[in-house]
Amino acid sequence: MGLPDVSINILNGQLGRTESTADDVAGLIMTGPAPASLTNDTPTQIFSLADAEALGITSAYDSDDRKVHRQIADFYEMAGDGAELWISIVPDTVTMAQICTVGNATNSAKKLLEAANGAIRLLAVARTPDGVVTASDGFDQDVAAAVTAAQALAEAYATDHKPLRVILEGRDYQGTVSAVKDYTNGSDNRVAIVAMGFEPYGATPTASKAAAVGRALGAAAAQPVQRKISRVKNGDLGLTQAFLSDGTSLADIQEADLSALHDKGIIVPRTFTGINGFFFSSDRTATGESDDFSSLARGRVIDKAQSIAYQVLSREIEDDITLNAQGQLPLVVMKSYKANVETAFNAQMVSQGEASSAELILDANQDILANDGIQATISIIPVGYSSNIQVDLKFDNPTA
Predict the structure, then answer these.
(1) Spatial distance between the Cα atoms of 79 and 221, rounded to a whole number of angstroms
(2) Of 85, 255, 312, 329, which one has the fewest beta carbons inside 10 Å?
(3) Distance between CA atoms of 266 and 12, rounded to whole angstroms?
(4) Half-sphere exposure of 256 toward its Cβ, with a 13 Å CA cutoff?
(5) How far apart are CA 398 and CA 395, in angstroms?
């Protein structure tokens, strides 16, 4: 038997801890010729601009209005070295709409997303056209088609428990606000369009038609899920000049035109009187303001919530449940579910300031035997935003 002693077993898994979700993993798919050390349509994981340059994506790669190196540089300027970025370069002949089409297995976002094993939560898409651009709805006609395709792609991945938000290049703005499609009349709430442009290029300055999706992607990846890329306290965008994607400097654009583009669901650059620097106008998605997910931030919050809920509750699949005499969930089982879910949400979101509260609601009277399943509701109160501040400013006479 051995000497009498005290035996202590150290138990694991008692703290209700859960694996954290990766909310800032980003993907960037662009078009161009194959770089020196990377073949076209090859998803590749990088963690710095130097990693991209080692593949042959140097500043010299960006001829004329090509912005592959620049988009990656912009991403890391905002997100910082060490940020996880999955990149893929496909031929110029492939449109953004084709890249985003769910059924396309090559030269596609799908190939990039699958290579990352569903880890990508933020995807940006940009293209250098291989010929003359046909305009429609105020931009390159590829933009409107890509919005529809990107929404379908993101919805498909969300259904597969791999939630995704897509940032599209609002390329080649035609300079006429009235011609721009009003995306707030749609319901593509997983897609955002960025029309912030670049400075002129070439020895004889030529207006750039590209849009800075890399900077928007990096700005999003650098922030917690609830935080808007347009938050002024994030800091300015680090630019000395800002443009739209028709090459027009912000200094030459009427504020009313910027406001009208914003009202149509387009993300543009903006300034604030008395504050140095340039900022994003919003984090709007291509849907109406009444949509719960009319901002990237609100969408990212619900995406993280979906990932946490799936992570916690999938462990309960096919478990046996001893019911009470009425055939209902016993109180102890309900408390267990509630504790597991709310502990995970409180640890990963509420305590991080990403949500105000989270609660699991279970109906004790549901018929488990008939349905072979449990119906539950997770109610999340998100954080609020000071998007508009109204102040009454007046003189006061204390002796009056």
Answers:
(1) 6
(2) 255
(3) 50
(4) 2
(5) 10
CA geometry: angle 167, 172, 176, nearest 5 deg: 110
Split into its structural domains, the chain has a count of 2
Nearest 5°: the CA angle 128, 281, 165 is 60
Task: Using CB atoms within 10 Å of the CB of residue 154, give its burial: 0 to 12 exposed, 13 to 18 middle, 19+ buried.
Answer: buried
Lowest mean pLDDT of 40-54, 275-289, 318-332, name the range.
Answer: 318-332
Phi, psi of 210 (to 5 degrees): -80, 165
Q: Is 284 helix (H, G, I), strand (E, B) or coil?
A: strand
Strand bridging mode 139-140 / 122-125: unpaired
Q: What is the DSSP string of 334-363?
A: HHHHHHHHHHHHIIIIITTTS-SEEEEEE-
Pairing outcome for strands 165-169 and 122-125: parallel
- Residue 260's pLDDT band, with cuts at 50, 70 and 90, is very high
Structural domain harbouring 355:
318-392
**Two tokens, residue 351:** 């305590």
Q: Which residues of 123-136 are buried (b: 16+ CB within 10 A; e: fewer)?
A: bbbbbbbeeeeeee
Q: Is 20 left (phi over 0), alpha (psi -120 to 50) or beta?
A: beta
Helix (H) or strand (E) holding 46: strand 44-46
pTM of the model: 0.92
Q: How many CB atoms lie within 10 A of CB 166?
A: 29
Q: Measure the CA–CA gap between 362 and 374, rounded to whole angstroms.
A: 8
Type and span of the H or E element at 266: strand 266-267
CA angle 185, 187, 191 (to 5 degrees): 110
In degrees rounded to 5, what are phi and psi of residue 172? 60, 55
Residue 201, beta-bridge partner list: 206
Same domain, 115 and 240: yes
Co-location of 368 and 289 in the same domain: no
Torsion angle defined by CA atoms of residues 294, 295, 300 and 301, in that order, rounded to the nearest 10 degrees: -80
Average pLDDT over residues 222-229: 97
